[in-house]
Amino acid sequence: MIDHMKTTIRKMGNSQGVLIPKPFLAQLGLENEVEMNVEDDAIVLRRPRTHAREGWAEASKSIAAASDDTLVMGEFGNDDDTELEW
After folding, report:
1. Which terminal CB of the chain, N or C, has fewer other CB atoms within 10 Å?
2. Locate the SpoVT-AbrB domain: which residues (predicted)?
């Protein structure tokens, strides 16, 4: 397991960058895309996180198609709302 290596910052087009050794990428399972941010005084690369609710739209469509979309908690009535003051 590799955990430390010194590398050179290189000119890449109009930007600068570093080459990440293949063993680092393989060790972390990084392939085509990473999330990059600055934490304290370090540049941190991570696997992209899945977005909250990713795939929910497709899942809800398949649940509805299977007619399995009944309310779990039942209906919520608004009978007592007339007494509320806004």
Report:
1. C
2. 7-50
pLDDT digits (tens, 9 = 90+) for 44-69: 998 888 777 878 888 888 988 888 87
- 37 close to 44: Cβ distance less than 8 angstroms: yes
Q: Is 22 helix (H, G, I), strand (E, B) or coil?
A: helix
- Residues recorded for the chain: 86
What total of structural domains would you count in the chain? 1
Three-state DSSP class for residue 64: helix
pLDDT at 28 over 90: no
The residue range of the domain holding 3 is: 1-68
12 forms beta bridges with: 15
User: How confident is the model at residue 84, as a pLDDT?
Assistant: 79
Residue in 52, 50, 8 with CA at minimum distance from that of residue 33 = 50
Q: Has residue 77 been placed in a domain?
A: no
pLDDT of residue 43: 92
